[in-house]
Amino acid sequence: MRSPTTSPSAERRPVSREDHEAKLRALERALPAHGYGDAALADYQQACRDYAARVASQDDDDRHHFLVIIPTADRPRQLRECLASLLDLCRLYGYGGHDGTRYRKVAAMIADDSKHAESIAAHRALAREFAALGLETAYFGLEEQLAVVDRLPDEARRRLAGILGRPDREAFYHKGHSVMRNILYLNLHARYADDDRQLFWFADSDQEFRVKVGGADGDRDVYALDYFRHLDRHFRDHDIELLTGKVVGDPPVSPAVMAGNFLADVQAFLEQAGGLQPQAPCPFHDHALPTGDSAAYHDMAGLFGFAHDETTHRYRCTLPGPHTLADGIGDFTRRLARFFDGEHPTRITYFDMDDALYGDGRPVRPARTVYTGNYVIRADALRRFVPFAPLRLRMSGPTFGRLLQGEIGARFVSANLPMLHKRTEPESGASEFRPGVVRQAQRIDLSNEFERQFFGDVMLFSVEQLASMGYPVRAVEEGVIADTLRETAGRMADLYREKHTRILSSLDALQALRGDLGRRLAGLSEAWARLDAFLANMHHNFGLQAEGYRLIAHPGHRQRRHAQLLAALIDYRADRAAWGAALSAMS
């Protein structure tokens, strides 16, 4: 992308931030009415660049500095897209200005947890490449991480086992993003503890600094948000310790909690297709976009306070121009395998400029979930580590959020600043790397991720219940913690069994429908082969003999996990004290 120019009107003169904010806000609010068209976006982006240049020309430019931290593991292609998107954002909006060599107030850091030497080399090369392009990019790899850990006294390292784990120095990789973040926190605290103008933005490598919008002509991914300006304003105008955005595009959850509603949507698609002729025009277009923040992709959305969505969602065909039903079926079946890498082809999340965060007049509001791929903190937030990191459970962000609610209250907020989440690569249709997902030929095994999802849910809702008792600020008796954990595990097991029954019923119905379609819609052998492969993997992961369900029901395994979770919950208060001591030792 060519670097946009700044208009001559960006000359040195006093800046009324309130007046300019109002002008930019009006331009931003008008974008949906213009369909986020190129001309409207260009006008908005130019106005933002003009404003950024005016502020940068003043002697009192006190805007925040941003360090964008991207934890990653063995994802050089997706990391490149993420960094390229960040650089585009800097070029398009000009936050902080450019000194002729680099952007003054935006820098990046690659936090590498890779195993493979070729990935490590590629990530190091990306740091050099983007630094040469003007985006200062640091590389924080395995050697750098070990150096941070080695700065801790031996006793401090021992006491931090519940925060950093006990990683093998000879295999110091794939530790998980939560452990990685805690090591990062130690490093950042030592460097920035007293810098109140420095902000840290954590973003995942399978995300971009854009939003997804939809229309009659299909979906588009656009640079419609001046993220840094908004974030600078939020942290300037409000007493915030941690601000979280969300994601649009692909859901931020595991297939383990989306299988039920996706099977229902697949069945609805095939039933509609089965009533038409192969050469009929494709009917899977021009559907209304979903509205509201309903977490419709989640089979148990009600657990999170959202209304349960009983309706099926229609697929929005991605093929352009006139084409037939047969073409539409081919398009749909080519996307089925992507579900196992976290895509949900029928329940995509779109950016809504007018969602509740703007509609109620508040730019920020109290939060309860940390979206770990999109959150921003001040330096003083580094004194709070990501809890229970060595357990490698899913739902770590919601669990972290429930604890923050009780600990910092109104200083934990959410804003309407989502990032684009892209689980898979366009060419392969798969994620570049996902921990715990095993592929052998066409067989995809999610049992490890499924198990971490279930016990992550157990931990989350146990913490939610304990937080209502004042935990962790107030001590809670160990017996109460154990009872809460046991009761929550039983309740979650019942919910998972109920969901499993519905999934089995859906699989039976789809298998019968598949046979009927093969007879009624002949000549689509490739599409039906893709459907067969999808159904085989759904049976493997969610069928009667699925390993994930066997694991979470096995008494011995559940007892071991219960002991791990209980110890982590009991030790959390001691972990907080150990963390404080470690930060002091690193200063």
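[next item in queue]
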Amino acid sequence: MNVRLPQMAFLAALLATAHAGENRANGNYREGTPRNLRAFATDQMDGCLKKVDEIVNRKEEKLKLHEELWDQQWEYDLTNWATWMNQLEESYKEKAGLLAETQAWRATQEAFFNQVRADGHRILYWRGKLRVDTIFLKNDTDDYKDRVEHLFRDLDDVEEALDDAAKVVGDKDVSVADLDKHIQSLDVMFRAAQAVGDNLQMTVDSVEKHHGLKAPKLPKDVEAILARWEAPKETYPDIMQRWTSYLTAWAKLQRKDWTAFGKARKDFDEAYGPVVSGKVCDGRKRFKGVKYSDYGNVVDAMRTNVRAWRLKMRRRDTDISVLRKALEEEKRISAEEKKQYKALFEPYSASKERELRLASARAAGGVSGVRDAQLKAARAKPGSEEEKKYRKLADDIENFRHPDQIAADKALADFKKGEAEAIRKARDLMDKRKRRRAKLGLTEDFD
């Protein structure tokens, strides 16, 4: 790209370009002369750079992709440029020295055009995404309060319930009825705390998916392009300044967009950073350092303490640590039973039953199978083996004796038998559970 032209050819190129506008204004073009052909070619690219400059300066985000318009304009003008340059080279075919100089000059210009075209396509594609990302960052920053801050109000309620419950643990004058009210309140707050933790984690996941957890760096290839554009004299010493001046202006526009993105990202990180880091609730004594997935456990621990104190009111001779340990063990057993209960009914869903009943009704063609067999029997020769075969088939289907029907009915019967057995096992499980948990003052319900 830094190959210099012979001095004579370079001056000739500049003179031809300088006279182009004057010749057109005075109507002095003489078709086919070398000077005019060179002027036509340079004028073509003057117009090209002016038009692509308009594309670079567009601010719309929802129009046709800018890089597509960019490519179309370059394709059109470079095709015309090649036409003029081919004619110019043809005019010098008898002049080897001028032809060589012209070809060298052309190669330098075309190398410039092709690199600018490729660089511009990359920049416009990157810039389009950057502008969209900037808009989304601003929108998400504006939505922070609606998305996150209401969760903190829910945590206020949770913490208030936890503080109230903590006061009754160890209070020998508290009634069982009051303890039950606290337990019921903590049941609600358990779900509320879980919901807050889940929502905060979903926010982190959303940030990671749509924006990344850390601000992106300027892509290396984009940085390299901007560096070329910001130093056009050094990068393209043999290209006319009126062409390279566009590059400097374009680089400033891209830096401006990058700066706007950086500000939007900074504002976004200031809003969501505490959520992403997991420290958004570190100012709350009960949730400091707690993982979002464990928010429900904070409430559950207090609920266990209240339940243990409730038991202590009935078993005054039993140490509360023993009662708390028993409740923790019950929690473990209950979690296993919940899995067992769910596994019992997983194979016996309503949708599976509908599927089997439909298969039974359609086995061997169902009503349509009967009708089809009857039609074939009617078309067969009377008394023939074929007629007998189809009449038997129709009779078997109609009376549910066809092998496919028998198999389908068996599958449905096995399903109902298995479902009944699952219900029996579930009932046994719940009866044992009820008796065991009653000793701890707990209902048989799953948490």
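[queue empty]
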